[in-house]
Structure formats: structure tokens, C-alpha cells
Design brief:
Largest sheet: 6 strands, parallel
Low-confidence stretches: none
Structural class: alpha/beta
Order of helices and strands: EHEHEHEHHEHEHH
Mean pLDDT: 92
Amino acid sequence: MKIGLFGGSFDPIHRGHIEPVRAVRAELGLDKVIYLPTARPPHKPGRSLAPALARYVMTELALLDEEGLEASPHELTLDRPAYTIETLEHFRRAMPEAELYLLIGGDSFADLHHWVRFREIPEAARLVVLARPGWDFETAPLHPEIAALAGAGRALLLRQPPVDVSSTHLRELLAAGLPLPPGAVPELVVRYLHKYDLYR
């Protein structure tokens, strides 16, 4: 069994979080991809987020009709920031027969050397790096150890066209009471965030 894991704040989740993952699942033959909304992102200290439960609900709503994509509350159960290596260890124990794939954006890959126990991450899961708007595999500066992962084939760099949607921009539009770009956010999520005025 091949299982993808995809973490993030998903604040809010949008098509840029879904379309590339759908494509990766098909390309790599993953049985499923598990989205992991995090309660307290360790790499975004001090940033105000929508409530963790609301972000989890939005992720569930966004994935309702997506075959092979589902959400897990695992990282919401911790009373501290969730570290990727610990999440990988959890799923290794829960699914000892699975081959794990960790899906991360290109910007996160470039920052990987700052993550807790980062050298253990490529041993725990195959790294799959997704293109992100404004990030270029060819020109982005990489820490030597991170560049070596790609050079040794321990990180799969996917060059699919990035989806040019930003959670930051969506939050700004919502805070200003402006309409969202058509199709940027799944309709059930749009209804949810408007009902609860999450970003106003």
C-alpha cells in the first residue's frame, strides 16, 4: 500500500492544495493521500490562524468528493506544535505495511534543513516535492544537504504547473468582504467560511 501524507495549515484550503495532490496520486499510483491540518504550525510562530477545528472541517468539506483524498485529525490532538518526523513515526506505527510518501511544497523543501530531525525525514518517507507559484526548482538556493537529496534521487521533484492561488490572498479578499476568484475554493468551503465569518 502506498500512502501519501500532506500537512499544512490549510487556512483556508483551496484548489492549489487539491489539484496538484490529485495529479500526484494518479502519477505515483498512491492508494490514498491523507491531509493533515496542523493545530500549531511550528514554522509559522505567532501567526494568527483560523481555529484549528474550523480548518479541519474545511479540509473535510473540500475533500468530500475527492476519491483517494481524506483528512486526518492526528496533528490536532497534540497540545504543542506537530513535527513532521513525529507524524511520520506515528503513521509508520499505525500502518507498518505502508510505503509512505511525504508531499511538500517546493518552498518547504528549500526550508527542510530547519525542520526538527530533518535528516531522518527522507529515511521515514519518500519525499515528493510539489511546484509552488513563485518557486523555481532550477534557481532556488538549496542547503547542500537538501540539494543532495534531490541529486541522489531521495526527493522526487515534480514539475507540474503550479496552481496560482494563495491562502494569504484569499484571506485578504475575505477580510475586505470581496468575492473570491471563481473556482479558487470548493463551494462547500466557501459556504462554511461565509457562514462563520472566519476571516472578517
